[in-house]
Specification:
CATH architecture: 3-Layer(aba) Sandwich
Largest sheet: 5 strands, parallel
Helix content: 25-40%
CATH superfamily: P-loop containing nucleotide triphosphate hydrolases
Radius of gyration: 20 Å
Number of domains: 1
Shape: globular
Distance between the termini: 50 Å
Structural class: alpha/beta
CATH topology: Rossmann fold
């Protein structure tokens, strides 16, 4: 009696896996501007809004730029394990809400989060298969000009941010990619980030993201 041969399975699963993109870099490098432009363009990715205790600036919108919360609410989120990571940055607390990240990945949707270098270091330990992109200014002088134009820091705060940025630049080996965001060339930086995401979608062995 002839044995029936088992059903053959395809050697690879060619379905692209959802990605978790971690965007980081020094203060003033242009991360917020990049994400804002990508949102307005309708780029198909889930933009995860950070939670912060920082006071809202005049031009910012709650639940768009950040989820602005009081310290008590932030502490409850930590206690209830609702944050993927959190850190104190320049005297204010910032955290990435876990649920919207998990929800996006579960439905096969790419997600992108913006964190400082502390946050990127923490997420690298928790989710090493995420895609880590460092957004950098072209020079120290360029970064100084950008921070001065914001008019949001005092001279002492500006000096602290520059000192921190110099230390953060040494963390480049933690990241998979670096994108230089030059003045008036934000579309070039965005194109580079989108190219990175496209390339990651074509990996033969996809990244497996587990929360």
């Amino acid at each position: 009696m002839k044995k029936s041969s088992p059903k053959s399975e395809p050697p690879f699963n060619l379905q692209a896996k959802p990605l978790l993109i971690v965007l980081s870099g020094p203060s003033g490098a242009g991360k917020d501007a990049i994400l804002s432009r990508m949102k307005k363009s309708g780029y198909p990715i889930e933009f995860i809004t950070t939670v912060t205790t920082r006071p809202r600036r005049a031009e910012e919108k709650n639940s768009v730029d950040y989820h602005f919360v009081l310290m008590g609410s932030f502490q409850r989120m930590i206690k209830n394990n609702e944050l993927l990571e959190w850190a104190n940055v320049y005297g204010n607390w910032y955290g990435v809400p876990k649920e919207p990240v998990k929800r996006a990945l579960d439905k096969g949707q790419d997600a992108i989060i913006k964190v400082d270098i502390q946050g990127a270091t923490t997420i690298k330990k928790l989710i090493p298969q995420a895609v880590f992109i460092f957004v950098a200014p072209p020079s120290r002088e360029d970064l100084i000009k950008r921070l001065e134009r914001r008019h949001t820091e005092s001279p002492s705060e500006l000096a602290l941010r520059l000192k921190t940025a110099e230390r953060e630049m040494k963390k480049l080996p933690l990241f998979d990619y670096v994108v230089v965001n030059r003045q008036d060339e934000i579309n070039v930086a965005i194109s580079a980030i989108e190219a990175i995401i496209t390339a990651e979608k074509h990996r033969l062995i996809p990244r497996e993201i587990r929360l």
